[in-house]
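User: Can you help me understand a structure? I only have the sequence.
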Amino acid sequence: MRKWRRPARTVRLRFTVLYGAMFLLSGVGLLVITNLVGLGGTRTSRSAPSGTPPVEPATLAAANDRIAWLQTQLSDTHAAQSRQLLIGSAVALVVMGAVSVILGRVVAGRVLRPLRMITAATRRISADNLHERLAAQGPADEVKDLADTIDELLERLESSFAAQRRFVANASHELRTPLATMRASLDVALAKPEPVPQQTAALADRLRTELDQVDRLLEDFLVLARTQHGALADRTTLSLRRLVTVALGARAADITTKNLTVHSTDAVDDSAWAQGNRTLLTRMIDNIIDNAITHNQPGGWIRLATTTDGTTAQLVVETGGRVLDQEQVDRLAQPFQRLGADRTHSGNGSGLGLSIVTAIAAAHGGALDLRARPEGGLRVAVSLPLAAVPAEVPA
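Assistant: Let's start by predicting it. Here is the structure, written out as tokens:
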């Protein structure tokens, strides 16, 4: 037996109740007035009219009996008519009450239709399609004023987002010039014929390492700005398993250095294909694999799987480790968020890896899901719209 649920208290429901209650109150008042007037008009006088000529006693008694019988019949007739009027009025009130509720709901729906359209259009608009507008049509009333105000707000938000992305892209691009200059200056200083002091060489190596880290950070900024900027170009159909295989092969030395064991549960299945930009999808999977290697303990393990469910292609990467807090894991998709050096065993990383994964997945119509494994470690799953396997699969 299904449990009865109270309907949501919407504006349309309140309008319907208000219209129905107003009609019922006015109908009850009209019926009361009608019945009072009707009852007042049916009162009859029992007194004999003046100027009646005298009648014989026997005839007068018979006439009085006749009058009493007629008055009884008339009273019964009026009582029956009153009951019929009352019953008919009650039935009419019930019927019209139901009709008023239905009409009230229809009228309330028509009145609130523009608001529902504005709500649905506003929900469709996100940070990726701020260029869309409500563009409400109709008379210049309160509803159109509300729609125009939302359009102005969206325009300001679009300008703000565009300015932020341009700033990140321009700043990242412009900062590359002084970095290249500093790197060239180090190379020139170390290339002099006279011997370089050991401390100077060590300092130069450290500076070069830091410059490489800053360069990677700027590259991450550029990728993040490009991904969040809008439409993707050069879309092609790619196999997630093959991208994972390439990424693992490129990082074989790092896996060996950390003595990590890689488990793959999809050695044969190659049905997880997605359509998108090759550079960005490759960067997305590289970041996921880098995260699994860097934030792993020596001698640990990595489990990879690519699956499909008919509509989406999914890549799942799991790693072992200590038990993590899910609230902290949820923040990893935001820029510059880490779980701490006690988990990473390394100070490397800019904190942008998973935020770039989130942006790339969202730009391709997918999503990133991060879960703390109950037995310890992290589960990273990225889902993308499933693409058909090409007729001629490249080697």
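Now, to help you interpret it: The domain at 235-385 is CATH 3.30.565.10 (Heat Shock Protein 90). Confidence is low (pLDDT under 50) at residues 44-52, 341-347. Let me know which part you'd like to focus on.
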